[in-house]
């Protein structure tokens, strides 16, 4: 179309567009807009991949979808709608995850440009690696509310998506969640954990009962007396919250009494915790605040009204019974997955979070607010997506025109900066971090762990979660010994052995590779007795000596990123404040991948540290 | 000013607008729901503005256009299907416009703006004009101004674009985020947490009409000092408005060579008239002004769409009063002209 009308573009660009092939990853808010622009401009050959189906809450911005499309494949409907703008274009739609053996390096190599319109870091990291391996320019996009950005990633020319460590996901110490919540979010995290304990995938790191190992409670004069009592209470816990609940047949009153009465009384007995804090108040099922209140006049959305504790208890009872029914209807061993858009699941978390908040004298929140926090919803609007997608396609045109060196990152600011700029381009391309463990010529990274405690299974998850690999293989450098194989069964028998038991020691290096990503990294093992899990050390040099206390608290155990490594930052913002904008996530939806399990990303959006 | 009608949102509205209510709040959404918007010019930019405004959930949108759909429109005008070439552009766009959001009323007007009285324009809360000549824009702007109605206009030429806004006397609220140290207790030993508190302040912005913004005196020292900042986008707009005025059309891709020569001549005239530095408006800027490039229409349409939302919802500072997109640098900026 346009490219074929002589005169809109110069001949060279017209020609380049006519011969181009573009991959769009993601058919959400930005993906729909990108697809529209490409099709109208006359890009003749486009593929689009998206795993998702259409939801009502997409319709305020994902304009290729209408009400009648709810529940259908985003990629397919986007294709059909876009073709109606220009039937002469060839679009191939894949209702699929981009993280798949079907989309290997050779698949990526057939495109002139890959455009990312994703909503999660896991997929972004993966596409980053595929484009590096295939040596294809990647245009990475994202918006959050009014803000957004467009960034070019090209091997050898710019930094990659993983060059700068991303801010670790927000984390809360386990003892804050279990013993001493002080903010609404602590209660919400606890409520989501409770959901998993009762109906979801049980995770030992998501215990909801009082944590007797809380260091603050230790040294308590009454600790020994307590532990006697603790044992009986503790024994009940050991039985697992789920089977205890099942034994009571999910009786709302009994569950309530245990969670919001007995457990709170137990916490009260850990007196050290309450010396400087306001102690919690246990609740009694049939005498709850708000029971006799007359209904109050409420303006605003129904979900924006804050429920009384009495109402919360009623919702607790009804949602429990609905969820139990759902669980029962599933095959043995199956479990529920918490979803902010499932009414009962969201009701349950709202009710439990608020009841707990009341107990700890924390302000109660509406279901509307709790949904934002629990579901990690990033607001999204049509205009910001349109602007970012427009800029992304203009950048794609520049690349095809042979002006890739001019394609610096552009930020859409929520408000103009001091120079009146709303779209702020960087002055230069940002060079790659030479220590990047993904795009450096010889990628290398340290893995700090306790070799006596970390098992091979843990190591696998370190590679998957920490290094974002899909199917890692690992051999010992210099020896060729296979430690970990992605072939099912080959190394599984070692899963529960510690690294020490399989002969790995401090300073030893592993060559770890992911076949699909065509990515290999040298991983140096560093013995740290106190490391409870594992932590990546991304600076190739030994970390500079830092003040002792700070190092301790900074390291914590929320590894996965070296954001805490004290190193002179090579490429922090220039004079303008705009360049420090975080890479923003496009959408509110859960990651398209099943979130990795264990410690670090317990529910894909929050992290629980062990005390 | 758009009145917030006190009717509560229906469940369907709450569901569909959830992600934006979480950004701009329920009050804004209610104000949007009461707003009547006129969009003049169903070219690529008009279609982008219409899409954004309809998706936002206003009460009604009227699409005004007296031109017929041409093939070249299809390269950016996605609301009209290819098989409607030859039909009126507003009417050809209705069906898809309605499908974007069935909760918004869509109407059309096929008369030329010259055949409509001032009172026609002032029945709307916001008027967005594209594709008109300078005198037409000024006339509609003044009519809106006299009735205290919001007026925006803009155009996209190739990859280049601008927007102008006259919100007359505009009151709005702005959320300001403050950081506060947070202490949990008197002897809190934990690292001091920081709490962000947002407070809402009321503000007011005074606008000037388009004719003031377009007749700036560049001999004025304050204006001349702006030249040092070096972005010539304002003058690109002047050149293109002059082209439209003289030739009654936009630069035509099929006459790229001849029209480029005209544009360069006009550039030289303007440089002389306003005593601008030589080479201030580089040739390259006048080479990407043919047709409507879809990406640029999306960008300018996104900016104008968001300004309509701000104008109606009276929330967040609106741009005062001109926005330019310079495609050579990929920069978009706001400047105040004519005050
Ligand atoms: Zn890198």
From TrEMBL, chain A:
The active site lies at: 175
**What are the annotated GO cellular component locations?**
cytoplasm; SUMO activating enzyme complex
Q: In which pathway does it act?
A: Protein modification; protein sumoylation
Q: What is this protein called?
A: SUMO-activating enzyme subunit
Q: Which InterPro entries match?
A: ThiF/MoeB/HesA, ThiF_NAD_FAD-bd, UAE_UbL_dom, Ub-E1_IAD_1, Ub_act_enz_dom_a_sf, Uba2, UBA_E1_SCCH, Ubiquitin-activating_enz
Question: Where, per UniProt, does this protein localize?
Answer: Nucleus
**Ubiquitin-activating enzyme SCCH domain location, by residue?**
332-371
Record: residues binding ATP: 26-31, 50, 58-61, 74, 119-124
Family membership, please give it.
Answer: Belongs to the ubiquitin-activating E1 family.
Q: Name one GO molecular function term.
A: ATP binding
Q: What GO biological process term is on the record, naming one?
A: protein sumoylation
- Ubiquitin/SUMO-activating enzyme ubiquitin-like domain ranges (all copies): 447-531
Q: Where is this region: Disordered?
A: 201-239, 528-611
Acidic residues bias: where? 577-590
Question: Binding residues for Zn(2+), per the UniProt record?
Answer: 160, 163, 436, 439
Q: Keywords of this protein's UniProt record, alphabetized?
A: ATP-binding, Metal-binding, Nucleotide-binding, Nucleus, Transferase, Ubl conjugation pathway, Zinc
Q: Pinpoint the THIF-type NAD/FAD binding fold domain residues.
A: 8-437
Q: How does it assemble?
A: Heterodimer.
Q: Where is the composition biased (Low complexity)?
A: 215-229
From TrEMBL, chain B:
What does the entry list under GO cellular component?
Answer: cytoplasm; SUMO activating enzyme complex
**One Pfam family from the record:** ThiF
InterPro entries associated with the record: ThiF/MoeB/HesA, ThiF_NAD_FAD-bd, Ubiquitin-activating_enz, UBQ/SUMO-activ_enz_E1-like
Principal localization reads nucleus
Q: Give the pathway annotation.
A: Protein modification; protein sumoylation
Lineage: superkingdom: Eukaryota
Question: Annotated Gene Ontology MF terms?
Answer: SUMO activating enzyme activity
One GO biological-process annotation of the entry reads: protein sumoylation
| Residues covered by the THIF-type NAD/FAD binding fold domain | 17-328
| Cellular compartments annotated | Nucleus
Record note on quaternary structure? Heterodimer of SAE1 and UBA2/SAE2. The heterodimer corresponds to the two domains that are encoded on a single polypeptide chain in ubiquitin-activating enzyme E1. Interacts with UBE2I.
What family is this protein classified in? Belongs to the ubiquitin-activating E1 family.
In Swiss-Prot or TrEMBL terms, this protein is called SUMO-activating enzyme subunit 1
Provide the species name: Arctia plantaginis (Wood tiger moth)
